[in-house]
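ok so for the tutorial part 2 we go from a plain amino acid sequence to predicted structure tokens. step 1 is just haveing the sequence, like this:
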Amino acid sequence: MSQTPLAAEISHLRQQLLASCPTQQLAFGDEVWPLSQLLTVLDYALRSAPGLKSGLELWCEGISLLGLSWYPQLSGQEPQIRLSFLPLQEERPLATLWFLLQLLHRQLVTQTDAAGFTLEWPERQKMPDTNTETASEPLAVRYGPLPVFHLSTPHTYATDPALAELHAPLATLIHRLHRLGSRPRSVLEQLKQWLDLALPEQLSLEALASRLQISPRTLQRQLGQQQTSYSRLLEEVRKNRAISLLCHSRYSAQEVGLRLGYLDAPSFQRAFRHWFGVPPGEFRHRFFAQDSQPQLPPVVLYYAINELQEQSLRQYNGARVWICIRNLAFDKSLQLQCEDHDGIWRPYAATFERFLSGDVELWSTPSLPVHHPMRFRIEYRVGGHIYLDNNGGQDYCLDAAVLLGPHAALCHQLLWFAEGPGSGRLVARLFTRQLWQQGWALWSDGRRHPLHPEPCGNGVQWQLSCSQNSPDLQLRFEFLNSSPYQHLPLDNQGEGFLPRRL
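step 2 — the prediction. this is what the tokens look like for a chain of 502 residues:
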């Protein structure tokens, strides 16, 4: 059976696209995917989508798997939609992107009616041949500083009925591959992957060292240089696996604990409450509860901190970023696109840390030895959708000690140290956007203790150090200005702050 002219053209474009790519296979975790199969997944995802916007959102998430030097950004509302491509590095090869957009255009022609397509392209010279002699509707191209694909949305969008039921599984597949491919290939990530695969068994430090072909003492020293340890890595793996398993209602809390390697349910309950401050049942309820704050942005910078860390013979800048996200779904991923020392933008995964409120979560990255000043943007991926916080298109730049988000004040650290029988010390560090005249820590019994401010980057750091007999007393903070009068309470959504015991 012979192909139609448009089908033959699409096949020819796929061959040209494959020939322009430097690699024909891509690795995602332990999986290796041929590029041709990924293109088929993208094609089916687009054809199975219930609408043009949802199809393009999933297509954008999928093409980020290809390792291009361009970052797709979908904007606008019907009837006008823009698909822009931002450069991720100085070298900006265009050939693969050219064939990819030509292929997208031909695929959309088969699914839309009365739709207009225009491409802005940053090179005036003719791009490689796209077999335009057989093109039923050539793509109009005009000059622009960056690649931008303009779409005038059609009156109808023809979903392929044979593929409609595959859209949800395809979205899940693309989302999973993106999570696997977004993790930096560092030694720490490799160790955590081995620990995760071994659960519910605990892979020992000696076994990990053997896989790296080094001694256990050397591995301990390397972990210490990265400000972590074997027990911390295992705890992080268990925390992430617990979140993943709790999304399946068929698993009870006891079953989740057994899958993590805990001997009984109380042990897991205690560990989970220590990690997240709530029992597993309440944690699961919050995730499945209906979102009651749709006015909040899906993802926004909470704050970032950059601290100089010393190692044996060298120094590097270590940075951490905290991100505030709305709970839109259980299965999701969050990552930063950061500029590394070599100037190339690379992804770094963030993980859940704790709840800020019933519907808002706090996620954070590990310490990132990245280029200084640190430039980054935040990606929140859930259900085939991509939510981006790139500081209004300018990206964030962490060129000082602290970079605050839209919040006026936040509590960075609250620790309690035992100093003797029945005695201890409370240490806190907070940041505010402006320099308030006075700040206090307040207890429910009426006690208060002053906070000591000092300039810190583009914000103000407030410190607290005082005697505290028990770590189980909640406190809140308060900042005041007298002229003009201003009052800023900080009470953790009315729940108060509870110190972490060390």
